[in-house]
Amino acid sequence: MDFLFNEDQKQLKQKVTGLCEQNLKPLEEKVGETNVVSREIASVLAEAGLFRLLVPREFGNTTETPSLVSVCVVREQLARRCPNAELIFAMQGLGSYPIVLFGDKEQKAKFCPLIASGEKIFTLALTEPNAGSDVAAIETEAVPSGDDYVVNGQKVFISLAPDADIYTVILKTDKSKGSRGISGLVVEKGCPGFDPGKRLDLLAAHPIGAPVFRDCRVPRANLLGEPGEGMKIALQNLDFFRSTVGAGAVGMAQTALDEAIRYAKKRVQFGKPIAQYQVIQFKLADMATELDAARLLVYRAGYLKDHGQTRITMESSMAKLYATEAAQRIIDQALQIHGGNGVVKGYLVEKLYREIRLMRVYEGTSEIQHLVIANMLLR
Ligand SMILES: Cc1cc2nc3c(=O)[nH]c(=O)nc-3n(C[C@H](O)[C@H](O)[C@H](O)COP(=O)(O)OP(=O)(O)OC[C@H]3O[C@@H](n4cnc5c(N)ncnc54)[C@H](O)[C@@H]3O)c2cc1C
After folding, report:
1. pLDDT tens-digit map of 109-147
2. 3-class secondary structure for the chain?
3. Whole domain around residue 85: which residue ranges?
């Protein structure tokens, strides 16, 4: 895929690969399958300057605004086998990009240095018990009171909660206006009435929780954009980050393919390595072809965005949909090639099999990606 990368991005890919091998993998092994955010891993990402890719140039990036291709490069490489690092990097982006897009001068001056330095960990709080795919159904409400908003409501499935420090919350500032009454508000952990909530235990390791707001006072200065711009904020944020989920899926699928090839070459049955059977060879060929197709869709979305296409809604949804579904199939085949060993707890393909499942749900399920693509085709 390097033909789409500029020199900086080629170097970035090498740098992240080296960082994974030398610094991150030993830490990942130490941390293991955890549902707690590792600050040590976050520090390594910060020291390597990777969070600077998520802010505008004036706060340390080398490009004017975050480059989608660069963010995808990082996410793909981290996803090769540094799952904790990949999630932290992804959420630092998803949680903070609304500030980069819609923050005013003061908000950017306050928050961008915290994003870039990794001093604070960011996340996005959108989903609620009664509002998942149907974002307009959110009930969390912010009511003006003096210089503050008073926020009440419950979020759920918020990645990195309760450990994250700063939550970009999508909520209602005017319930009478339906989806036009939705806004974005930056909430800092520790403000009165913010309860970081309980941790959830998922099928695969993934720090995630359900923060609650009880008469939580948040300065009105933390409102992003104008009241009522929340849907726009959420959708533009997803436009950018959905293709990065695809990049993560591609990284995981690449690892699964590598493992399958390695295993097929060494596993001997009926007197020869299973890699010599055509059935296995065809599986590997299909896996590699699907993987390349997925990667092309991901970097096409990134390339178009970085070259001035303002909205990449369809390209981003296609990248997310195809890459996550293909990665699930590729990892499933890699597990099949491992036979019984593939389902033994602790085997790499067994972990990937559980981890990839989450990606087909978050940032819009596969069904929602189909709806988005169909809507774009039919409008
Ligand atoms: C690992 C993980 C991490 C997450 N991280 C975050 C996070 O950091 N921040 C955050 O805000 N949220 C997060 N989420 C929430 C995630 O975005 C939602 O789970 C997702 O959008 C689906 O919402 P839901 O779970 O309520 O399912 P529902 O919306 O209830 O959907 C249930 C099923 O119905 C289908 N469906 C729904 N509507 C339609 C329709 N119109 N047509 C056809 N089918 C439909 C869905 O595709 C799905 O199969 C995370 C979720 C997971 C699993």
Report:
1. 999 999 999 999 999 999 999 999 999 999 999 999 999
2. CHHHCCHHHHHHHHHHHHHHHHHHHHHHHHHCCCCCCCHHHHHHHHHCCHHHHHCCHHHCCCCCCCCHHHHHHHHHHHHCCCHHHHHHHHHHHHHHHHHHHHCCHHHHHHHHHHHHHCCCCEEEECCECCECCCHHHCCCEEEEECCEEEEEEECCCEECCCCCCEEEEEEECCHHHHHHHEEEEEEECCCCCEEEEEECCCCCCCCEEEEEEEEEEEEHHHEECCCCCHHHHHHHHHHHHHHHHHHHHHHHHHHHHHHHHHHHHHCEECCEEHHHCHHHHHHHHHHHHHHHHHHHHHHHHHHHHHCCCCCCHHHHHHHHHHHHHHHHHHHHHHHHHCHHHHHCCCCHHHHHHHHHHHHCCCCCCHHHHHHHHHHHHHC
3. 2-120
